[in-house]
Amino acid sequence: MLSRRTVLAGTAAAAALTTLPVGQGSAHAAGDPVPYRWRNAVIGGTGFITGVLFHPAVQGLAYARTDIGGAYRWDDRAARWTPLTDHLGWDDWNLLGVEALAVDPAHPDRLYLAVGTYAQSWAGNGAVLRSEDRGATWTRTDLTVKLGANEDGRGCGERLLVDPRDSDTLWLGTRHDGLLRSTDRGATWAAVPGFPAGASAAGQGVTLLVAAGRAVYAGWGDGDGTSANLFRTTDGTTWEAVPGQPAGTAAKVPVRAAYDRHAGALYVTYADAPGPNGQSDGSVHRLATGTGTWTEVTPVRPGGTTADGGTDSFGYGGVAVDARRPGTVVVSTNNRWAAVDTLYRTTDGGRTWTSLKDTAVLDVSETPYLKWGEDRPKFGWWIQALAVDPYDSRHIVYGTGATLYGTRDLRNWAPRIRGLEEASVVQLVSPPAGEAHLISGSRDIGVMYHERLTASPSRGMATNPVSGSATGLAQAAARPSYVVRAGWGDHGNGAFSNDGGRTWTPFAAQPALAKDAPGPIATNADGSALLWSFVHWDGTKYAAHRSTDDGTTWAEVPSFPKGATPVADPADPALFYAYDTDTGTLLASTDGGRTFTARATGLPSGDSQFKVVAAPGRSGDLWLSAKWNGLYRSTDGGVTFAKVDSCWASYTLGFGKAADGAAYPALYQVGSTETVTAVYRSDDAAQSWVRVNDDAHQWGWTGETITGDPRVYGRVYLATNGRGIQYGEPAR
User: Fold this and answer.
1) Which residue out of 67, 104, 260, 569 is catalytically annotated?
2) 682 and 653 in a common domain
3) Average pLDDT over residues 634-647
4) Is 17 part of a structural domain of the chain?
């Protein structure tokens, strides 16, 4: 828990600061970035906002955290969020999830983040990032414990707190290692001796930390149903169970807490599970900290009957107090799928409550995907992040599984999400013609058609059918108006488009495997044949199927390697390829995908993320990204492959418009040419590379997919796992 180092943080608006000119790859050393400007292709949110925090002493200053996409600072003048953790690179991908954040009320420029996405054995340890300039630059302390920003309970907290008596002292609640304390503003950490709850290798551990006057309260998520699960210290040394904890709460998880300093009241929300899923019961309680008196103030008890006769089960999540009006509190329900989650607001300390959802008018015109294919958007789900502006009682914001809503009049709500992009992107297609320069596929929000890169797609997510996570997206190379997609959905899992992805027609039929194991899909060069591969979420692979009538009928292809990704030849409609990662074999079909036979063998094997990409406009020109095994090329349709010497690791590869005077399309790669895993471009068929991102723009793990724009030289689209779609262009 003791090592530390200083790193530089950038923002999405900042360009790479270098004086090197843009030009042919051979003009630069591989490790020197060329000047690129990086921005998000706008979608708007799309991920779980797990925490929002207004600074109590600075009007207009706020921060947000996400489960996989880093932290953000609100720019009140520009009315948008500024990303603060894009500097985290490939080796630090696990730190892009933010478990908790904390501000110092007495020192407004100080900001602290507890980062670490997974607490599993295969994930790295967590870290604490500390800033003296509101997140512009960071100093890092690596921990010896794991954090879990994308685990169950990620909407709890905050688990990080500046001590109300001493700004040099910080508290950090962990999931499996008890309570930690730092007395040097986060530089070093040590376990707190005598903390009453015992750490365990499973469960939730400390779920929240909150200051109430000079006291600090800690919630504990691993109660046995009989013992206390809320503790406090009044002297910063001795911890005790809070006396008189209400009956029934010992069997629940204290999810969040907020202190009304004017009324001397601590409000605590409880649920029977940490969330965001799995909650069916919960309550809200108020503790008068001066007298020790507990009062239940639950707005509505879970378990009632819905209008259609179902059970109205849910827990309670977020809680926020109005710093200007004593007794004014807002709480959120969570996991209330039957009646849809809501916010309840009280102005009398919890004696009476009003549902803000009942009078809410939602305007999602800025991010139309929030309608999810319906006539109107939902008020929200997974509502655990909740905050009231300490300078404006009617300014409330709350996070959902996809966005951040805000109001300034308690009635009209709209996304407050500009600049915050959290999509986990898995598919990218840049068409060679047509209105859109980009079509994307992501987890959770399916496929989108980007008419403009600077605004959320006006059509929202692809409908007919509505689907969740995308598993496949492909365009016919010689017929770009024809696009096919596949993904998880309740109303069918595949569709085709004849207008370049603007509108969609569902497949008239689909193989039975499509329901539980939709996988990658491909269409040949003229769109006359489809190949659909099937992979269950648990990794089980199944036989691919083929259709020649837009998905009306399907036939199994026994010779296709199970679970492989089909790749169409961009020039010859009769040719398909597939890479068997189990055996390291490239297979090819010369009859439009009916049968496949082995060609090259003895290639790298054993990793499902090896990728074969076909060079545009050329038949048989194939490239194999084999991760740490490097990059390989075939010019004879996969009969033979030669290893490319210019890079030693290649994670994903794509093509874009050729440089002026160049005979080959520009190549874009996430890989390593020396010792740095980064984004590279080659203008000479991989003889040499230039780095096009810099240390301020790294975005954690970026190995899913990359593609260049076939119409704009130098423009590259990059899929990230939690920072949406990044696109870069040469700085002019």
Assistant:
1) 67
2) yes
3) 97
4) no
